[in-house]
Amino acid sequence: MGCSGCSSRGCGTLPKGCNNNGSCSSGGCNQLNTFNWLAGMELPNGTARCDKVEVRFKNSRKEFYQFGNSLDLHQGDLVKVEATSGYDLGIVSLSGELVRLQMEKKSISFDSKEIKKINRKAEQAEVDKWQELQSIEKETMFASRKISSELKLDMKISDVEYQGDGSKATFYYTAEGRVDFRELIKKLADKFKVRIDMRQIGARQEAGRIGGIGSCGRELCCSTWLTDFRSVSTSAARYQQLSLNPLKLAGQCGKLKCCLNYELETYMDALKEFPKGDVKLDTKKGRAYLQKTDIFMRTMWFVYKDDFNEFIPLSVDRVKEIIALNKENKRPDDLKAFIKIASQEILPDYENVVGQDSLTRFDKPKKKRGNNQNRNKNRKNKQKQSKVHQNKGKGDK
């Protein structure tokens, strides 16, 4: 049975791997999965088990639900849950004591009365109806796009999600401004005979729901693990010495990539040691201007105004030293005198004594051992004969 809780098909409602109800890290469909590292651990004596579970719906939508003592739920179970009107179906994505930590992380009170309940595990008839509704979600999305274009609404419907009982359909859309979709709701309700719920999402949330492969060759962060969508500015690219090319810096959503913020703090800490502003160095030869900076090598490259072809590399310490001299109205003769000559690594002497570096050393034919043995016998015979001749010479004397 294909997975009906996410956009990827064929992964199965039960996790893969060892099939131990989701406590292994190889299960699920990689939609914001959480590794249950507390699975299999026994609770201390007198501690009641956690009566909350995390339920995943289509794509990355997750909510927390409460269940009774009569139910025994594990990760991967398909359950019937309460909804605002009617019921809905979802897959248990997390159970056990780790749910408490997840609720604390998301600032949700464990004893909140707003947490809805799980009725029971889903029956086969409900699962069949749920899968039938999900099979028509794409058709519904294309039909709704056609209706919105006929009404000339400046919006894009990116996804549709049916409720488990088929009484409600949620339309996710993106728009730059405010959209009056009252006429659109009337036409959608007349066409699909369901209650319509319109939800506006951002471009990053849209990319997270659709999914895809990034320029790095991996799945999008927003569809696999990223939940906090922070704003990304072009200054993040400037601090990291990246070219301001919108084609390379933009992600699938059309916005600046979220990964530009991952290493930004490291670059900010490293740049604290560098002189701030547009650095200019005055020498007797002329004024030198900063052209580029190598943060990792702690090197700054300068050129003279009259000669832009020759780049002069200076360390950060040398640049600070020259700036201090300029503040004292002192000018060095030339920046080349401040270039630090890199010490050359002395390589050890090496001789190919045995011939192990020869690529054709195995192509030479091997010498026969029999010839060597015959040569050794001939040598021994010659030595014996020479000794006999010497003894005969001594006897004649």
- Report on the biggest sheet: 5 strands, mixed, barrel
Widest sheet, order of strands: 1-2-5-3-4
| N/C terminus separation | 111 Å
- Arithmetic mean of pLDDT: 80
Structural class: alpha+beta
As a whole number of angstroms, the C-alpha radius of gyration is 38 Å
Element order, helices and strands?
EEEEHEHHEEHEHHHHHEEEEHH
- Please tally the helical runs, counting DSSP H or I stretches of 4 or more residues: 11
User: Per the principal axes of the C-alpha atoms, what is the gross shape?
Assistant: extended
Report the β-strand fraction as a percent range: 15-25%
Number of strands: 12
List low-confidence stretches.
1-29
Level of helix content? 25-40%
Pick out its properties:
single chain, 397 residues, alpha+beta, GMP Synthetase, Chain A, domain 3, five-stranded mixed beta barrel, four-stranded antiparallel beta sheet, 11 helices, 18% strand, disordered N terminus
Written account of the structure:
It is a single chain. By secondary structure, this protein is an alpha+beta fold. Among the domains are: 1-122, no CATH class; 136-206, GMP Synthetase, Chain A, domain 3, CATH 3.30.300.20; 280-338, no CATH class. 29% of the residues lie in helices and 18% in strands. It contains eleven helices and twelve strands. The chain has a five-stranded mixed barrel. A four-stranded antiparallel β-sheet has the order 9-10-11-12, with helices on one face. A hairpin with a 5-residue loop joins strand 6 and strand 7. Helix 3 crosses helix 4. The longest helix has 28 residues, at 369-396. The radius of gyration is 38 Å and the shape is extended. The model is unreliable at 1-29 (pLDDT under 50).
